[in-house]
Each structure stands twice: as C-alpha cells, then as structure tokens.
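Assess this one:

_____
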Amino acid sequence: MTQDENLQKKVTLSEIQLCTPARRTPLRVRLVRHHYVQFQVDDTTRTTKPTKEKKNHTSWNETLYFDGNDDSVLIAKIYRKQRIGQDKLVASLKDTIGGVLGRVKNGVLEELLGKDISEITIKLTFTVEPHAGSSADELQATNAINRAIETTGALGGPISQVAGLAGSTTNTAANVVTELLSFENTWGILLQRMELFNKIVSGIAEVHPYTSLAWSVISAANQVLVNQKDRDERILRLAGAMKDVFAFVENAEPLKAVQAHREHVTLLVRQVTECGYFIAEYAKHGSFWLRTAQYTFSDIDTKITDYGNKLRDLKAAFLEGVNMQTGVIVFRMMNVMEFITESMDLKDIPYALSARYVQEKRCLPGTREGIIQEICDILNNPDETAPRLCLLTGVAGSGKSAVAHSIAQLYDEQERLGSSYCFLRSDVAKRNPQNLFSTIACDLSEKDPQYRSELYRVVENNRSLRNSASVSEQVKRFIIEPSKRLHAIGPLIVVVDALDESGDQSNRRDLLRAFSEHIADFPANLRFLITTRAESDILASLPPGPLIIHKQMSDIPQHIVDGDIQKFVRHSLRYHSELETAWPNEEWCRLLVYHSQRLFQWASTACKFIDGEGAIGLGIHERLEVLLQSNNGAGVHPLDELYRTILSQLFTLPQARHKFRDVMALVLALNEPLSLASLSSLFDGDSSIRDIIKPLGSLLDGVLNDQKPIRPLHTSFRDFLLDDARSSLFHVDLLPHHSLRIGRATLICMQQMLKFNLCDLKDSRLCNAAVPNLTPQVTKAIPTHLAYSCQYWMAHMCHVDCTPELLDDVTTFFKNHFPFWLEAISLLSLLSPVSYILGALKTCRTLNQWAQGHEIANLATEAVQFIQLFSPILRDSAPHLYLSAMPQTPSSSPLCQLWADHLQNYLSVPLGRPVNWPAEIHVLQGHTDNVLCVAYAPDGSHIVSGSQDYTIRIWDPITGQCVGGPFQLHTAPVVSVAYSPDSKYFVSGSRDGTIKTWDTTTGQCLGHPFLGHTQAISTVAYSPDGSCIASGSGDRTIRIWNANTGISAGAPFEGHNDTVSSLAYSSGGSQIVSGSHDTTVRVWSTKTGQCVAGPFKGHTSWIYSVAYSPSGCYVASASRDNNIHVWDLLTGEKVGNPFQEYTDWIFSIAYSPDGNHIASGSSDGTIMIWNASTGKCVAGPFQGHTSPVASITYSPDGNCIISGSWDNTVRIWNPNTGQQTASILQGHQNKITSISYSPDGNNIVSASFDKPFGFGMHILASVLQAL
C-alpha cells in the first residue's frame, strides 16, 4: 500500500437513486412504499430521509460527506419503511472504498443488489478526493446551511448576510446555528407592528378575535425566545417574514385597508398565529441540533418554506385584492404519516352525535372579550409545565356556555379545536361520561392522520377495547397511549361545556376521577376548557393547582358585564325602533340590563319574548311592560321570576296550564329530544302538542324549525319546571302514565312502519357500508320518530306495570315484528355502529325482566342470545340477518318457529344447523395477568374480577364490556372478591394484607383500606345483611369489619394455627365457619368472636373449602386428605361416615339449594354427588375432566352443576344422571380458577390463567333448555 492510498480523503455521495422491480400485487391493495438508505464509512453513519417511491424509482437530492481512505469499509443498507414493526432491510452493499472505486464509471456507481431477494439497483455519484482542509462533519453542516438559505430566501430579508456564512467553515455545532438577524430588529419590530395592528382592528368584530389570538400566541413565543441563549437563524428568518406582513400598519390609512379586505386580513392573521405556534414549539426544545436528533434538516426546512410561501401569497393577495382559494397552512404534528389505509376503521368506538359546539350559541362579537382573551392566554401557554385544564364556573344563566362556544369556534376556525363536547341534561342517553373520551379520541383521529394511525395501533384487533365504557380505560388507551409517539406543534383545544349536566354526582364520579388522576399524563399540547356550575364534587375533584386553573364568571367586573349585556340587548332588538319612541335615549335598554341582574340568559330570554317569539296578542310595548312590571320577590331567582311571568302570560286558563303540563311532561320524559315534526308523527298528529309548543319560542329551542329537536333553551328552565317549589302552577311531574303514553306510541309507530327490506336493498352481497347512498335511504325509510321508537320503546314500557292488556300488545308486536325490528337496528347501525346494537340488547333484557313468567320473557331471552351471537352480522349486513343469521338459529330455539310463521320464503338449513346456542357468550379480556377470583352481583347486573396484575375490573355480563376499572389500589395480587347482598358494593382482599370496599356503580374505593391483618388476605365474605365483612388471612386470624366504616368490630378471632383458607356466613349471619391449613374447622359467633363449635378435628391435611347447609344446621368441609366431613353444629359430631370414595385432594364443595346433597370436585378430575345426611355417594364419579376440578357450584334452581377445571374447560352436568347437559364449554387456554352462576341461572362466568391470551374471563350460557 502506498502512502497516498493511506491518506484520509473526502468521500462524497450524491444524486442517489433506487430502482425496484415492478410489483405484481393488484393496484387496489397496493400501499405506497417509502425507502431510505443508511451509509456507513468506518465509524460515521449518515442516512437519507424516508422518501416515497414513484413508478418503482426513489431518488434523493442529498449530498453526504465522509472521511476515509482506500481501505475504509463502505456499508450501504437499503430499508423499506413498515407501518407496524421494524423497518425491513431489503438490500445491502459492503466493500472497501478502493474496491468501490474500481467499479465506478464516469463518476457514477451503478450496481444490482439483492439478486436473490429484491433485485434493487442503486445508482449514485461517487467521488473520492484529497481533503481541502474541512472535515466531513464541517462540510455536512455547511451544506445544510446552504440548503436552508435556498429554502428561506423566499421569506425576504438581506440574503447577502446569509451568503457570507455559507462559504465559511464552522468548527463547532454552536457556530453552525449563528444568528443571522438580530433578535431586536426582528422580534421588536414584529411585536410593535402587531400591537399597533391589534389596536387598529379592535373595533372590527369580525377580525379582532383572530388578532387577539395571534397576539396571545406571538407574545408567548416571544417569551420562549427571550429565555433562549442561541436563536436559530430559521426562527429569525421566519419572524422576519411575519414582520413584513404587518408593514402596512405604518402606512397612512391602515384601517381603511383592513376594512376593505377583512377576509384577507383574517387569513393573514391566522397564518401568523400558526407560525407563532411553530416558533414556540421549535424554540422551547433547545438548540437546532437537539431538534434534528429526531428530525432531519429537510423536515424543518420544508415546513418553514411552506410557511414562508403561504405568508408571501397571503400578503400579495391582501395588497393586490386577489381572491385566495385556499386557507392557512397548519402543522399540528412534526411526525410525518407515511402510511394511511382505509382499513383503519374506528367506527365502532362510541361517539356522541350532536354533542359538538353550536355556532349560534357563541357570544355576540364584541362581548366577553376580556374573559375570552384570558382563557386563550392560558390555553396558548407553550410552557411544558403550563396548566392543562381551565375550569370556568358560574351560576346558571351567567353566560359561561356562550364563552365556551365562542372559544370552540375560534379555535375551530384556526384548525386547533381537537374536540368539543356539550353535555345536556335532556340528552343523557347520547351524551354521558361513558362516551366523552371516546368521542374526543374519534375527533382527534379525524383531525390528524398521525393520531388516527396511533389510535388504530392501540385498538386494532381488540373490539372489546374499542367498545369499552370504562372512563379510565378510555383515557389511558384512547388519549394518553396514542399520543406518546407523537410530537405536537402548538395546542389542540378540547372544550367540554356544562360538565354539571353529565349526570348526578354518582354518574360523573368516574369522569372526575379520570381528569384528576390523569391530568398530568395528558399530552402537554392537549388543553381543556371545561365549563360548569360550581358543584361541590366538581370543585373538590378539580382543585386549582399547577395543572388546573380556575376562572369564575363572577370575577368579571360588573360594569363590563352590564356593558356586554347592553350590547347584546341593543343588537337583539335593533329592528324595533318603536322602543326608542316610548323609552327614549335607550332607557328601554338600560331597564332591561338592570332587570337582568347580570344574567345573560335572562337578557336572551327576555329579548326573544319582546321580539315576539311566543307572545300572543300583545304588542312590543306591552311585552316589554310585562317584563318590567314583574316583581322579583326576596329570595326568588330572577330566572324563575322571568319564567313564571312568561308562562303566566301564555297560559292563563286552568285548562291551558293542564295541557302545558301534559305536553311538557312528554317532552321532558323522552330519552332524547325529538323535533316538533317527529313529536307530531309519533303521537299521530295530536294538535295539542303543536298548540302548546309553538308559543314557547322564548323558552324552548327548535320551535321555529319543525326539524330541529325541541329542548329547553337553557337547563335552568328544565330545572324550574321539575321543581314544584319554584314552578308552582306550572310544575311538571313525570308520572308513569306519561311513560305509558310514549311507550304505546312507539309500539304503534313500529307496527305501522316496520316491514321486510325497509330500504329496498337489491344486492345481498354488499354489506351495509358498501351500498351506494344507503345513509340517505336509511334516514328516509327510518325517520327520526321511528328510529327513536326502535331504540327506546322498552325503556318507557318498563316504568309501568305489566298488565294483561299491555302484555298482549307487547307480545303481539314482538311475535309479528321482531325480525323487522332487527333489520331496522341493523340499518341504523350504519349511522352509529355501537349504540343501536347495545340498545337492542338492553331492550330485550329489560323485556325479559318486565314480563317475568310469561311466554314473551322466554322469547326475549332467546333474542338476547341471537343478538349476542350474530351482532357482527347485525352491524354489517341487513340482508344477511335473513340469509345467514336466522337460518343458523339453533333448532331448539322458539325463534325458529317465529321466523317460519312470519317470514315468507324463510330460508331453512336442514344440515349443519346447531341444536343449542353456543355456550360461550363473551370473553372478558383486559387483565394483564392471571385472573384469581370472580363474583356475580346478586342482582345480575355486573361481574367483578380480581387478578394477579393487582387490579380489579367490573364487567357488564350482557355486553362483555369492561365498565369499571382497572382499579389498582392494591399493591399485590387480588385473591378474593365478594358482593354485598344489595349488589351496590363489593369487597376485595389482597396478598398485600389489605381489604378495600368499592362502589359498584362508580368504581370508587370507599374510605380507607381495612388494616389489621399482618399477612396476606386469603378470603373475604359479606354478611347476609351487608353490614359486616369477614376476612381470613395468612396471619391465622379472622376479622369482622364494619362494612361502612372499615373499623374492626372487636378483636381478631384467634384459634387457628395456620392460614385461614375458607370462610362462609350462616344464613342468618350470626355465625361464621372457617377452614384452615391447620386441618381444623371452627364455628364462630360474629357478635362475641368466640369459637362456639369446634375445633372440628378429623382431617389430616389442609382444608380447602367449607360450606354451610341452606338450613344452617350443618357445615361441610373438604380437604387435601381426600375426605369430606359434615358436622352437626348442635352436637359438634360428624354426620355419618367420612366421604371416602376419593383417592385425591378435594378442592371444592357446594351444597345443593335444598340442602340434601353435596357436590365435590377433586384433583383426580372427577365430580361426586353425596347424600348430605349419610355421606353415601349417590351419583358419580362424573368423568370428563382430564385435570383437577378447581371450582364447583350448583345452579340457583339445583338442576345443574357446573365445574371448572385445570384442563381449561367448564362443564355442565345433570346431578341426577351425571350426564353432561351441553357441549364442553371451551375457550380458555389455561387452568380455570373460579366459576360463578348469574342469579337468574342463565349465565356462568369463569376465570382462568389464560396467560398467552390476555388473561381473559368467559361468560358462558348455561343451556338449561337441555334439561
């Protein structure tokens, strides 16, 4: 090797190109491919940016520099970007620099790589030359600045200043990012011009809100830059372009120019605002080099170039009066979303329709400017530690909702509104805490494809998660987790209006907890504005602090409120000049402002009344005098007095007031508001509905538009009507007969309108979503009143008694129209994939409960099975309800006869049709480790589970959804759970030695942990009256606790010499039986804590299970010694001989409901039935399980036994014959640890160590029909 060959040289790679072979996949399934190339010479690695392939070619206009010599090794790796998982290496090249030079022709290297795999050709300009003094790193940095100059040159300013830097050589990274323009000359002038501009447009209501927002953003960005030591040339260059935009304010008549081109100015200001967001985000993360550790020069340059070009175009359009066809450029994410496919379907995530802000409800332009500006400053604060949530409180009618709608619209037009959600007390069926965060997530995914991709990554192939009603889970999985990999630019605002109308305190407890517990985990750029009345629970859950800031409407100075109301009144009544004649010098306006007592809602309602909305037979002067003469008595709220005055004027006769109360009861009793046209159609054109509602335009929304839902203009009016003390003669009492009237109307509506093939679909091969223009067909075939009827008919019927006449009506409807009702639900699911199917399930379950003991109740149970099994078909294809689902209905189901009786050309499948419903209904997935215990609520409403993952979850047994949790307050596995007798509470015991009680509805942990045990808890149980809780522990003691206070009721029960493994209360609750690893059984008085019977000795090894007989006279125990003993509690003697047929450990025993028999499960996999009195085996061994039987129980009626085994199966047995009554219930992939029957005996829940499969639980049908 010569000395020249060993010298360091400059290696330059440029004009890089790839050529890939043509793909053979069909065009419709192709994804756009992106490639990048990673080059390495010795220890230096440089990578091109990912670039889209076009017609099988990919190219880069980048130059890469390396230091090396002929012996240096060059490695080139070609990667293909992957949407999920690691990027794919598709080809590579490895050779020395000297070796590569030997294949270069005319300065170009062209080689075919990956001949056996990809056959990719790489082509690039390759030069090697002696060093000219600068290192490769210095050359790379200089090249980057040259490219930046090219892209930022369009922004204006002295390019010559930049050019001087391009030719110089830098020695350190800090020198590369040299300030090219002075901070003072750029930002100082920009701020001066913007401040002047803000003053100029302060009187132009259409422009001023955007200018105020821009000033807020630029001021915040300025503060970030003031705190920076090194200011990137790019930032100052962009600021220079922004400065030039406002140069016109220094002209002679800037206001005239703004007034002449308001739309252009608004676009300019909005674009400047976006530039401000970008600058603040870019600057606050430190130096340019820190930023480019994640993003390339090109990423930054491209965005700044786009900003600059748009500013230039908008400025030219403004100065020249040219119309602009496009809006502003908004970059909300730094991330580049390279792969978006239509398969990212998020439609089944719960979404609240019509919850968005309403433009018409915003503040009058020019009012509330101060509070709006203050809130915008909070929301725009770019600091990472800035408040994430602004809570705006005020009394009813103070105008806080108008502020919320104004801010929502402002940020929406700025394309910075992430989501808006307005709670409404009259629409809780659609707007409730369970779909707030899921709605926000859907809105965010629609706003940004990057967020959509990350959300889809979280919920893909997890339908139960997508449908989750757990508020906590939605926050963590829908909001926090998808945001972790995203790098946001500027804020995204979420406006939540009327939080106090989300339900009562118990209904919103989970929502408040989610905010308070996760506010610090929300993405830093996600900012919340929440408005609410000052309810105590909301204020306690969201106290002011570093991340939460409170604003109050009452803090607005009184003279400003009066001035804003005066502007509003003057604007609302601007066409009534006759008022000035009677009350000159705007005295009429000042009187109304005075009577409003600073309540905007009073002023709004009064102006509507004066304007003639709802006034009958009175002139405008008389209407005003009526309001001015109303006497606001001491202690009477001004809104109440206003409502009384208006209603008294409208309904003077007793008969009229009676009709008013009756009609308003119907309006308020609806589960969701209906329009006047829909109300008239639902109630068969009842003229009294229109007669009463039409005059109420000043109090009800939707009066002037027959297609708009009728609802109180303000919640205070609804509250007024429902409170007898406030509304007096106009009090509306919601009685059962109102529900009956609505229920009958919905039945009649469905009977008249439902039919086969409602939308006249022609092609059964197309799913609902694929049928062209199906949505308008659905809304035409199923108008609003029919859709309401299909969703809520049983929700009204359940409030009245099941009389024979009513039962006949419901039965007739169900038998004749059930298939067509399902078809309507399927079609409506196109509009809302989740809510209608869940509503149908709830309807059938409610019908079953309402009609208990009658034929229709059994049909309703069958309907639940049908909907659960065929819900995918129900959601996706109306025709296949008839072609696929109904023909596959099990032959034993009475629905088959129903199909045959009421469907022409019913398709029957004689072969391959199931006899019974499949056993497995739901797999409850969510726990991340073994499920150790489960319990059914006594009322059947919920299931609670405890897990090795330290968490507790609450599940809906109907839908299989997690509706509460995961609750993680224990610090060790949860080994035992039990419900209170009234199902309102449950208790959990953990290996951390603590016991906790929980509210079933809210999932809130009540009070403090029960502390006293010194080792792991092994078992817990509620007393029959629910007042006490018993616990057993590894510390060898039993404790009784007051269930309400958590205080230990006396000293621990001591006597056992080892772990207390099992507990059971007597039926009266006066005694507890315990089994222990010390081989003894003891009976204790719950009052004294004394051992009143025992220790019963006879076992020779650990006791696994104890059980009281239903009569309370006997106790049974099962042991590891292979024996079962029954003990007479009066004599303390064993009854009969030991049950000794077993040859292996006995894990579980259960008394039959009549107390005559005991069922047992053993580690040898068999089940035995014993005479409880004699100890004789009367049935068994039942064989089928291939591993130990860990849990066994009787069905509530005693006709079945279910067993759960470590062979991963649940089996159902006839206790009389030992025959399995249904197929083996399979689905678990690991040992089953616990099983429990639902109280009605219809379902079973099982828990398992399903480690590889999500640690799930299964809900299984008991298939009692087989008996």
Q: What stands out?
A: The mean pLDDT is 80. Residues 637 and 997 are 41 Å apart (CA to CA).
